[in-house]
Write the structure tokens for this entry.
Amino acid sequence: MERDLKFFLKDTIRQLVDFSTTAQSQGLAPPPVQKPRPPGVELVALPGPDAWGNLGTLSVREAMTGRQSRRAFQEESLSLAELAFLLWATQGVHQVVNPAVVTRTVPSAGCRHALETYLAVFRVMGLAPGLYRYLPLDHALLPVGRPEDLESGVVRAALGQRFVGRGAVAFFWTTVPERMEWRYGEARYKVIALDAGHVCQNLYLACEGIGAGTCAVAAYDQEAADALLGVDGETEFTIYLAPVGKVAPRA
């Protein structure tokens, strides 16, 4: 086990992958960069930069200095502009180069961006509590469902960690491994994990800019989390989560 882990972590991608056998090398079309939305479902438009242009104005140094994991949140709601800023900071689109290549606010191996963002919304002004999926290409939210006891479902998915259900919103990231496998074959899981770290660090720094806090959570019940989000656990599954809420100002 230890030897296998060491092999996986120490070897570079080019040592792990036979690029002549990948779907990309065989000329197959890449998977879509964003999950399609069901027909007829009305999206929730999110405010753009004009609405949150003054948010997150801390210097990079200040944000990095203040960054820490927060597990205690105030009852205060997030504004829709603040949530839009956090979503842009973690998965926002810079440029659609072509249908298969989209550059974003976070790096991704081979620009494959194999993550999807789901939200368990508890207290966001102008947004009904419930589950949503972020659509980066549209900068909009797709309603997923409104479980009767969302907090209990989130806490259960987080292995009983109650603070995960006490923020204003809980971010859940899933992965669609086919997107990364198209280019990287069996090494897909290595780079997917790296991508998740990039995304969550941006969330930490963006939270500092709006007087909020977060805490990365990798201890979760896989089946409960996947069931909560309505993903199949095979072609798409939960990989990371993080609650977000306002925190007391520093003295």
